[in-house]
Structure formats: C-alpha cells, structure tokens
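We emphasize that the prediction below concerns an isolated chain of 313 residues; any contacts that depend on oligomerization or on bound cofactors are therefore not represented. The input was used exactly as deposited, without trimming of termini.
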Amino acid sequence: MGKIAFVFPGQGSQTVGMGKDLYDQLPEARSRFEEANEALSFSLTGLVFEGPESELKQTANTQPALLTTSYALYEAFAAKGIKPDYLAGHSLGEYSALAASGVLSFEDAVKIVRARGQFMEQAVPGGQGAMAAVLGAEREALAALCGEISDSGAVAELANINCPGQIVVSGAKEGIEQVTARVKEIGAKRAIPLEVSGPFHSSLMKPASERLEAKLSEVAFHDGTTPVVANVTARPVQEASEIPSLLVRQVYSPVLWEDSVAWLIEQGVDTFVEIGSGSVLTGLIKKIDKSVRLFNVSSLESLEQTVAELATV
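Result of the prediction step, given as a token string:
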C-alpha cells in the first residue's frame, strides 16, 4: 500500500463562493468560518461567499479566505477517517498544512496569514514589483539569466519552481520585463506576466519577512502530528522550534514545489489529495509524475466522491 499526501493550494486558487456548500450543510464548517470572522473582526464569510472578486483577490483577504476554506474542507475530509502520511502546501498553503498538523491553532493561523498578506502588500510600493510565469525553461539556465539581470541592477529571481517547464520569476518590474524579453535566448517558449500585487518570494520581500518574524514570535507553535514538507527546503519538518524560521525565509525564498513533490514520491507517496479551492496543484503534480493518483477535494460533492474512490483502493 502506497502512502498518501494531502496538499493545500496557495494564492490564485480563490473563487467567490468557495466553501459555501460546507458552510450551509456542515455545522462544524460553519463554526470555523464564524471563528475566522471573529478572529479577523470583519465578515470574511461575506467577502468569500458574495465577493466582489476584486476585493477577494487582494492578498490580505485572499490568504485568510483560502486558509479558512482549505481547513474547513480538511476537517470534513479527516472526519471520514482518512489520514495522511505527509502534508504540504504551496506558499500560503503551507499554513493550511501546518494548521492541519496541529502546529498552529486555526485561530492563530488565520490571524497570521491576514497579517502576512498585509505585510507582503506593503513591502514594495505598487507598480514597482512584478512576477511572470516562464514556460519551457531549464531551471539552471533561467537562474543564470536572472543572476545576470540582477547583477546589472534590476532584481530578477526564481520564485516558484512549480513543475518541469513552469517556473515563476519575481523581482523589480524592470528586471522581470528584461527576463520576459530574453527568455527565448535560453530556449524557453515564452513568459506570461502575472496579475499580482507584489514581487512575492523574492529578496524584495525581506521587509515583509522581518515584520512576519515579529508576528510569529507572539504565537504558540506545537510539534506537528504529521510531517509537513517545507517550501524552502523540500524536506519534512515537525518540530515546533524549527518552523518559524522556515516561514520567515519562505516569504523571500523560492517555493520548491517540484522538489517537494519529487521527495514525497521518493518516500513512497502514490496518492495526492488536493484540499481547497481549485485544482492548480493536481495539475502541477500531474506534470511532475503522471503515474500518481490524484484527487481533488474542493466541495462537499468532490469530498464524498474522493472518500468513495479511496475506499475501493
């Protein structure tokens, strides 16, 4: 019998209305959403269920919205008796994984990601940073190109190593424009500018990481019940003392998603369940290894289907 990993999505997976079926039908899920409203002192549920989308996609709103939806789905799924061998999350999703492992209380996790979103938005003045998805580039060649551009004075860095042929770069607007203009030099197909509010996972986020470090020092961390594969190392962590520094580094370091999934597969994971809005991660994992089994729990209906299918394995 192979092992199972639960994975949690990051920013970009949000949709207006996500989690509404859970809220309407499961008292436990409803109480989680209401706990988030109380912790944040505003109606997160109103924003998540009714929008507008323009407000939901603001980083400081997206992060607690996705975490709350993911965690409510996780609890409903875990209540069916399915336990993971490992947990992982993409960027923001790492906080959902840490809450699922018991490293952070749900209330603390919601408050932290709200603050994290605010710090990230405020770290770089609007319009000065940018991100782009580069398709078809080799990691080493793209890193070398970014290094050359950064050395000339315009920051450009690898931000998300998502899957073979898809790497996101981040940095100063000028630096990312140069990467976009030059990717064909290194054999890439093209670069697609991303609609984001800042140069996430780049060294320009260090002011946000310093503010986050202060915030994390106020929170109780606990040893995890299940190993969480950290974005910055692509290796598991469970000890409470090791986790805050990894989360601080995560703000300005690349998300090693491809490496994390490859490591999980090396450990014998053959089943991945994406828990949360959308199916971004199942799409990426499929490109990393087509042989693994992929499930998506983004609604009550897909939760029941996944439980039924896993029961027959």
